[in-house]
Recover the amino acids of this structure.
């Protein structure tokens, strides 16, 4: 009986060992297969990363080449395009990063640039003292803000001596317009003004009134501004661009003031194209 028990125990131990061997062997094989899969995945990702890194380097080189080409093309095409023309840049109390770029691009093309900064919302007509003086000057009482916008546009579009409304609003701290008295007829207006990250409605009203008075008005913003100034100008029926701090924007701005096809240009939703056709090539 002892021997039988011992034999049964031995057989059980053998079967248990065999079962354990099968389980452990299966786990080892499974772990080996998993390791192989992980290694294959890592190797695949490494190859893909290497390919992407090469493509990124190629794209960077191509982008640098195109940027250099655009800069040299602008350097050859833009100078003198706006010679003898005066352009007003409308800035606000919000973001002003586009002002420097616009002034540089326009002056490189030969334009005389004046920056007019709107310091008070609503062109100051909510201030009773300002309102009273403006009413006395313009004779208008109804929709005074619209009247002020139209009057400013009319003043800038003439070569008459003195610009009384501009001077009055400057004296009242409503706007700042250094150098505008030295300009004759203003040819164009660029609306760059924003308040609290949104388009300044007063600046847009002046730009729209200026276009109605026979001038050229353009709404503009830099690529990362996010103010919506360009889209608001386009909605108001003006030409616009949202690429002001690029070589594409440089060309577009000058083109719109030198006979280029009107429209909303850039990369945002609703734009007509990245840039207009070169003026005179149609």
């Amino acid at each position: 009986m002892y021997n039988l028990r011992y034999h049964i125990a031995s057989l059980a131990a053998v079967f248990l060992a065999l079962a354990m061997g099968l389980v452990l062997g299966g786990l080892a094989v499974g772990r080996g297969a998993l390791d192989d899969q992980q290694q294959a995945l890592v190797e695949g990702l490494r190859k893909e990363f290497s390919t992407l890194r090469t493509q990124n380097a190629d794209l960077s080189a191509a982008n640098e080449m195109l940027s250099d080409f655009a800069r040299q093309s602008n350097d050859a095409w833009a100078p003198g395009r706006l010679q003898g023309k005066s352009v007003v840049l409308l800035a606000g109390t919000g973001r002003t990063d586009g002002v420097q770029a616009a002034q540089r691009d326009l002056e490189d093309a030969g334009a005389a640039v004046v920056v007019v900064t709107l310091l008070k919302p609503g062109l100051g007509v909510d201030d009773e003292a300002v309102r009273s003086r403006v009413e006395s000057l313009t004779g208008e009482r109804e929709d005074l803000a619209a009247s002020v916008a139209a009057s400013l546009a009319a003043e800038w579009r003439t070569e008459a001596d003195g610009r009384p409304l501009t001077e009055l609003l400057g004296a009242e701290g409503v706007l700042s317009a250094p150098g505008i008295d030295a300009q004759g007829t203003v040819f164009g207006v660029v609306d760059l003004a924003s308040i609290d990250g949104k388009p300044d409605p007063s600046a847009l009203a002046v730009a729209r009134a200026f276009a109605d008075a026979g001038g050229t008005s353009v709404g503009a913003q830099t690529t990362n501004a996010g103010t919506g100034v360009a889209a608001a100008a386009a909605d108001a029926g003006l030409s616009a661009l949202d690429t002001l701090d690029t070589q594409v924007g440089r060309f577009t701005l000058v083109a719109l003031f030198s006979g280029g096809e009107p429209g909303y240009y850039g990369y945002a939703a609703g734009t007509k194209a990245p840039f207009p056709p070169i003026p005179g090539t149609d």
Q: What stands out?
A: The chain has eight helices and nine strands. Strands lie at 86-91, 112-118, 175-176, 188-191, 194-195, 198-199, 216-220, 239-241, 264-265. The helical segments are 2-77, 97-108, 128-138, 144-156, 164-171, 201-212, 229-235, 247-256.
